[in-house]
Structures are given as structure tokens and as C-alpha cells.
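Researcher: I'd like a structural prediction for the single chain below. Treat it as a standalone chain; there are no partners to consider.
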Amino acid sequence: MFDIDVGENAVLKARILVIWMSILVNEYGFTKDELILIARSFPRTIIDKSGVQIYLKSPHCIIRIYSTGRLAILGGIDESQAITHLERVTKKLKHKIFWEPINDSFPADIRVNIPLHMFPLGPIYTFIERSDIKFDSSKVQIDQLVAKISLDRHLQLEKIAKHQSLHMRVAEIRGELHVKLPSFDTIKMEGDDKDLGTVYSKNPTAIIYRSGSLLILGYRSKKSIHLAMKFLWQSLNTNVN
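Model: Treating it as a single chain, here is the predicted structure.
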């Protein structure tokens, strides 16, 4: 939970429901065969053209390993938990996934085409430490946050939609109001990610419900969520039942 001071002696409580964070761990990316091996080496995975998706149970979240070498995590967790899970997966990728046979009689592609558990006669392989896979917690970035704010009062969505501050920003009304929000935050990529340039907010949107609850999506920081609520406050505060 964190506080949002919108002025007029009003302080709202906001809660982060979902966090999406990512980091580039291999600037060279992963090949199709490597992704197949990765998918076989983790429980509860699916694989598609863009990479491998891993489902974690405790806490419930999803990690994506992309062919570009980027890892992303999505779930109802905090930043510390997200970084911990990303680091654990990176360590396994670096030390306990890629291997080669000890006996030269086995072809090199055996490590992709035949799972290790099919060899019951004992260890015939050795793990390869991947020096190209690196983890630096300072390079983990927040890609998107989903926050919930409750006003504890019912709202008249039709009146809010007509407020002058929201002119040309109302997307739709289907039991709730969708409002396009300004892009308050940007991230200038550095280091391994500098080729990505400046990354902007991902279509920031507010979903406003008649019950008085709001969802803020698309921002990368609590500061931007704070600014978004200050932007919305006049329309919300003057149109209540």
C-alpha cells in the first residue's frame, strides 16, 4: 500500500495488484534448440515462437524467457520477490541447464534431443557454465504496474466522461469508464539495453467503476500513478452520487 496525496486534504490509498519486471541476461539471445532444452528443464512450462513461459506456484507468477535473451516476470508480487525469482532462474540458466556428454561417443546434439532422465546408467554428462548469461540486479526494470484505488463512494460515470479535463480521452463505457491517461514516465535504456532507446509508458489507462474503485494500468512507477490520480481527481471529485 502507498499513499496518494491529491490535494484538498485528500489522501488516497493505493495498492499494487500486479507488477511486470524484466532484465536482459544474454545479449546474444537463445536459439530455438536452447529454448527447447530450457523448456524441458523447468516444471510447468510452455514454449512458443517468442520463448518459454514458466508457471511458478509460490508465489503465483509467470516468468517468460524470450529468444532475445530477456527474462520477464509478471504477477501479484513485490519488487524484491520479482528480483529474487529472476535471479534464481538466471542462475539455473547459467549453471544447471546446458550440458555436454562426457563420453565422446555421443553426438553433440544429444543435449537437445534427448532428456537427461532417459539415461538410467548414471551420469554421462557435465554441465556447462554459460559465461554469456549474466545477472545484475541494478539492471532489472519495471515494465508495468497495475494499481487499485478505492474511493469508497459511487460514481456517475456519464458525468465523469463529460468533464472537460477528459476531453478526447474517454475510450469506452461498458459498465465502467476507460480513460486514456498522459504518459508521465519514461525510461532511458542504458548498458546492454541502450539499443532500445527511450521506452515510454505502455498505453496508460484508468478503468473507473461505478462502485468507486479504479484500476491504473500502464505506468512504470508509483510516482506516475500518483500524477495520474491527481490528473483524474477533479473529474472524480465533482461527479459523485
